[in-house]
Amino acid sequence: MTIAYLNGEFLPLADAKIPVLDRGFIFGDGIYEVIPVYHGKLFQAQEHLQRLENSLEKINLVNPYARATWLELINTLIAHNQGGSQIIYVQVTRGVAKRQHHFPENTTPTVLMTSSPFTEPNKVTEGYHVITRPDIRWLNCDIKSIALLGNVLLRQEAIANQAKETILIRDGYLTEGAATNVFVVLQGIVFTPPKNNLILPGITRDVLVKVLHDANIPCQETAVSEAQLRTADEIWLTSTSLEVAPITRLDNQIVGTGKVGAVWSTAWDLLQRYKQQILQAN
Fold first, then answer.
1. For the chain, N or C: smaller number of CB within 10 Å?
2. Domain 3-117 of CATH type 3.40.30.10
3. Which Gene3D superfamilies does the entry link to (predicted)?
């Protein structure tokens, strides 16, 4: 039985109920965070909680808990769900109020946390297919907002085209995937768009940038044009669930040699080594 946390109570997920006037349901007025758990241990917990705090601040929603309390609650939820490898979803909305667009006064935020089983990805030998589409989303993509309709529609385009992901283009430049960050390799140099309001600051993205730098593999956080994307030797996706995944077809065109790239293989190994070091230290 899956256990959730809702507003101070641990309870069966099926029993977790939220009033219909919750602003998260009415307006998408809230934020969320996704934290991986490997063998009962949180990975990059401080970084994930910092991003949660940043998102709350950007939508002017008071953080309901101190960071130590968040950690205690999340670890308790992990234990309730039998440890192991999990994905923890944290969602905070502005709470229940009369339906009106402006912020209500004196509301209590709604805090929901759920757990899903997580199977760690394996190192693949075949790459994935992705498609490209215009980035139709709003201009505050750095907020991990629960208002994800644009992302949902774009990811559904990938599903409809038997693709792994939809990579987004805005004004001739790569931003990110519908639910991923994107890296490209050109002549041995790794590039990824810089963190700004047009992309979500991915935790896996940041870890990958770090391990590449530490291994003296050239990696630049800089604007990537659509032309560079389409002529890349390698393309990668990063996310909590994928970790780092290779792309070998872009809009049904072969990427590089059409095979999983050597730089990606090195990046995968570096990421796994870093992950094990962090988990062993915790």
1. N
2. no
3. 3.30.470.10, D-amino Acid Aminotransferase, subunit A, domain 2
Q: Encode pLDDT of 142-196 as tens digits.
A: 999 999 999 999 999 999 999 999 999 999 999 999 999 999 999 999 999 999 9
Phi and psi at residue 9, in whole multiples of 5°?
A: -130, 135
Q: Looking at the predicted structure, is the pLDDT value of residue 255 above 80?
A: yes
Look at residue 168 in the predicted model and tell me its pLDDT.
98
CA dihedral (6, 67, 141, 30) positive or negative: positive
Q: What is the DSSP string of 136-205?
A: -S-S-TTS-BS--HHHHHHHHHHHHTT-SEEEEEETTEEEEESSSEEEEEETTEEEEPPSSTTS---HHH
Residues 168, 176: contact at Cβ < 8 Å? yes
Q: Which strands, in side-by-side order, build the sheet including 3-6?
A: 9-12, 3-6, 110-117, 86-93, 30-38, 41-42
For domain 128-281, which architecture applies?
Alpha-Beta Barrel (3.20)
Q: Is 144 a catalytic residue?
A: yes
Query: With contact defined as beta carbons under 8 Å apart, do 244 and 271 qualify?
Result: yes
Catalytic residue among 144, 195, 259, 275: 144
Q: In the chain, where are the structural domains located? A: 3-117, 128-281
Tokens, residue 199 = 């992309």
Q: What angle do CA 199, 204, 206 make, to 5 degrees?
A: 70
pTM: 0.95
